[in-house]
Amino acid sequence: MDPLIVADVGGTYARVALVHVAPGRAPEVVAFHRHACAEYPSLAAILRDFADGQGASGQSRRAVVAIAGLLDGDTLVNSNLPWPVSLESTRLAAGLEELRLINDFEAVAHAMPYLDPGKLSALSGDAEHSFQWPALVLGPGTGLGAALRFEGGARPVLASEVGHSALAAGNALELDILRLLMARWPHVDNERVLSGSGLMNLYPCLCELRGVAPRWNTTEQLIAAAQTGEDALAVECMEVFCAWLGSLVGDLAIAFGAKSVYLAGGISGHIDGFLRRGGFQARYLNKGVLSEVLRHTPVWRVDHGQLGVIGAAVWYAEEGITE
Hints:
With 323 residues, the protein is of the alpha/beta class. It has helices spanning 43-53, 87-94, 104-110, 172-182, 196-210, 219-228, 232-256, 272-275, 279-285, 291-295, 307-320; strands at residues 4-9, 13-20, 28-36, 62-67, 70-72, 75-77, 98-103, 120-124, 135-140, 144-149, 157-160, 260-263, 299-302.
């Protein structure tokens, strides 16, 4: 088959690759580039720019895009992208014969069998990796995504929009934060706090509760200040974030009956040290009578990297071609 253009598009970056695909074989990435979404007027512009840069405009007229959101008819429902996405308009503007969309974390879940165990790091449970199904795959990036991966079957992945389900508080501080957020929004979902953009909702709330003026205006500044330890409130913000995330991960593992958990997403790698301080694991395991069950449900952190691209290519080769 001619090479396929494959993209993994989040609210901040689009990772685009030229890939050779075939059913039953691992995808072969022959070119890869990361694009800043805000620098382009549309998804079509990113796809065209990549194809032109690789000299692929004439040889590849098919593309599959893993993208945050939910396709409703021709329109992608998403709150984190810098531009609207119409499937048919994007296909035409990008000069493609075929364009398929798949949820970004659904794609990451499709990539699970192709993980390199040597690149995983344990956050809870056994340090020695083995695949245990079903596997919960989730992570905070610009938003919050999640999917469930089964060992096999006609539909091995269950997609999810758990980022838009209601955020649950687990202690007095989180209740105070939730009250402040509910004064701004009638529905406070998980990614209002547990995402990169959510950190910039959490931080001002903590500042208000502590009677301190905010110092940082971006997620990058906030994480950097926490990592250096120069701002105690930035450190507290990371600790609250990681503990709250651990609580949600435990809830989802119970709800889905997961036997293992993989934490991906663009934020996870930047806050690895805070994820290991103990708050994440303590809240993950704090589930009453099911705490012991979760002790046997390992959590692994995995670098997002090219997972979305690989997974979208796998989906296209195994399912998308025949649909």
